[in-house]
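Workshop exercise sheet. Pairs work together: one partner reads the sequence aloud, the other fills in the structure field after running the prediction. Swap roles for the next sheet.
Pair: D.N. / O.F.
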Amino acid sequence: MTNKVALVTGSSHGIGYATALKLAEEGYDVGITFRNRRDGAVELSELIKKLGRKSLLLKVDISDLDQIDTMFNVFMNEFGRIDLLVNNAGVGLTAHFLETTPQIFEETINTDFRGAYFCSQRAAKEMIANHHGGVIINVSSNHADGCWPDCSVYAATKAALTKFSKNCAMELAPFGIRVNTVQPGYTETGWGEGNPIYAALERIPFKRFATPEEIADSIVFLASDKAAYITGATLNVDAGALLACVPENMFV
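Structure field:
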C-alpha cells in the first residue's frame, strides 16, 4: 500500500505543529512549512522521523505566489503525490477598523486567504493529475461567524476562507476530492501570563482555551476515511464560544 502524504502549512508551532505530528502518528509522510520559526520546524521534523515517517522541511512565505509554486515543485519532486493539504498558515494582525493600514490589510488577505486559495488550487491539480482524489482542510476561525474588536480584516479573511471551502468542495467533488473547514476558537499557543486575551475565558462556557492537540484531532478526523462522506462542512471547535444565546449568569 502506498503511504499517504500530507502537506501542512504553518506547522512550526501551535495547531499546525500538532496536526503534522498526529498525521505522522497515523502513518502519513509529511511536508512541514515555516516562515520564521525554524527551530520549531526542525524539532517537528525530527519527531516525525523518529516515528518512522518521512518529513520534508520547507521555508516558505504563503503570501508569495512564486514561493507557493516552488514549495509544491519541491514537495512533488520529493513525494510524487499529495493526498492531504492542510491550509493552516496565517497571520493574526489586529487593528481598529479606523486604524487599519493597507499593509495590515494586504498581509492578512494575502496570507490567510489568497495563499490558502492558491495552495488549494495547486494541490487539487496534483491530486487530479494523479487520479487518486484527496482531501483539503482549511483552518479558518470562529471569527468567521463571531465579532471581536480590532479584527475586521482577520475576520473577513476567515469568513472568505470558510465560504471558499464550500465552493471548492462543490467543484472538486467530481474528482473525488473532499474539502472541509475547521473553525477553532481561542487556542493556547503560549501567549504568556498576563496577556489580555485571557479575559476571554469568562465568555467561554468551558472556561478554558483549546489545546493545539484538540484542534489537530478534528483535522485528523476530517482527513480520515471515517469522514469519507463529509465534504463542504464547517466544524466549529470552540467550546461553544459563539453560543450568544447563553445567559451571562448561567455559569454562576
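Discussion prompt: The radius of gyration is 18 Å. What would you look at next?
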